[in-house]
Amino acid sequence: MAQQSINIGSSANDGTGDPLRTAFDKINDNFTELYGSTAEANDLIEDSTPQLGGDLDVNGRRITSARSNEDIILLPNGTGGVVASAIRIAGTTISSDDSSIININEGLVVDGTASVSGAATLSSTLAVTAGTTLSSTLGVSGATTLTTTTIDNITIQDSNITSSSNADINITPGGTGSTIIGSSITIKGTTISSADSSTININEGLVVDGTGNFSGTLTTAALTTVGTHTVTGQADIEGVTIKDNTISSNASNSDLEISANGTGKVEVEGVTFFGTTLTAADSSTININEGLVVDGSATVSGTLTTADVSTTGTNTISGALTAGSLNIGDLNISADGSITSDTNGDIVIDPAGTGAIVLTGTITATGTQTTTGQLNVDNLRLDGNVLSATSGSITLTPADGQNVSIGGTNTNLTGAEANFTLMEATTARADVIESDTSNGDLVFNTQGTGVFDFNAAIKMAEVSKPSAVADHGFIYVKNDSGTGEVFVLDAADNETKISPHNDNGEWEYFSRNSRTGKTVRINMEAMIRDLETFTGNRYIESE
Fold first, then answer.
1. Cα–Cα distance between 534 and 244 in angstroms, integer?
2. How far is 294 from 312, CA to CA, in rounded Å?
3. At 353, is the secondary structure helix, strand, or coil?
């Protein structure tokens, strides 16, 4: 039944409204409808899945969203929260409505960061599979098993305790307590002692950066020290005796050897000894004020200033040699820098092994220059009949207005690619000629009234219809009903098929006018046969 409204008239007591009996009869009917005396009201009361409005449904004891994958949002007004039993949800905060403990009786997975501002009591094992950050004190009582654990800047992993980069590890006992390591070594302040008053063994090397004071007997094997050491009396170090300002060997007829470590040098006053090299520590001259006998070879790498020098045997000079002239066998070196040979003699410069002849200045060659083997000029290499580059490209640049001419009966360019701004050839042969620029045109031009002379069939692949270009036309092949057909396109974008056959192999005329938008396709063969029927003449001759 539809809702019945009471007519209350236009104004009070104007007699135009419903009589009282009629009005209350409508009221009774409305209440009867509301309290379920009708089938419609019973349907509303008995509906277990009523629609609450919008996209929200009630299904049994569940409130569900009607649209797939839709959220259900419970949004209280103002500062109110959502209370489920004693659990209150306000914004992102979950609390107990009666201020008691919230029990989570199943496993808890926290994908983000868990921040605990109060005390956390764990009655069983805490398994942490990723990093855990504690911003307050961690109190642990009883046996605790930890894998890799980081506390502030300290990391505990297996049996190792490490700190963050370049950070100290400080172990500080309370009050007068000591730090005991390994149950026997006690560290208290700056004192290290043995808890059982026995010897402390240091089984590795010991480095003392400060002053070492030994009040007892010091027994060592090899001793490495850094800094100043004061020894009163004579010091015997294996085969060497040091007393006052004398260093001597104490074994009969033994040498006294002084050697520096690695690249170190031995310096005596202003003279430096390094291996077999004798130098001045201040880079000045070393004076030998007596005669000098050299039983072996004498090598002078700097400037040697002498009176007359008579030598026997081989002389090696690696530095500058200043002389009026120098004659070595058939080779003559003059003061003006000329190098000549005796009459008709060759001058042979032959470096050993893989050595090379290095000329750093300008080379001026008069006459024929013959090079046997490979000739390298910067990155350009000439080897036999091959000119190549060891790095980069080869550029041949003639003078302005001139050309690079390559002669010969057959000139082959065997590279994978040859680029020319302009190439002139009477005959050019190539399997493929293509544009080097993406989507670039390939232009063929003739001189004057010249034409393109093709002596073979032209094969064209299927392409899409090109865009019209002013003052130009196109011949191309495109797919027409599954078959490649030949088309022409004029500058006005009018397309005409010139290979006139349809899908049935019949002759047809096809044209599309882009200006009018009209497409014409005429079955010429059918039209002429109709014309033959009409005229009685025969126009199609079959072979």
1. 145
2. 13
3. coil
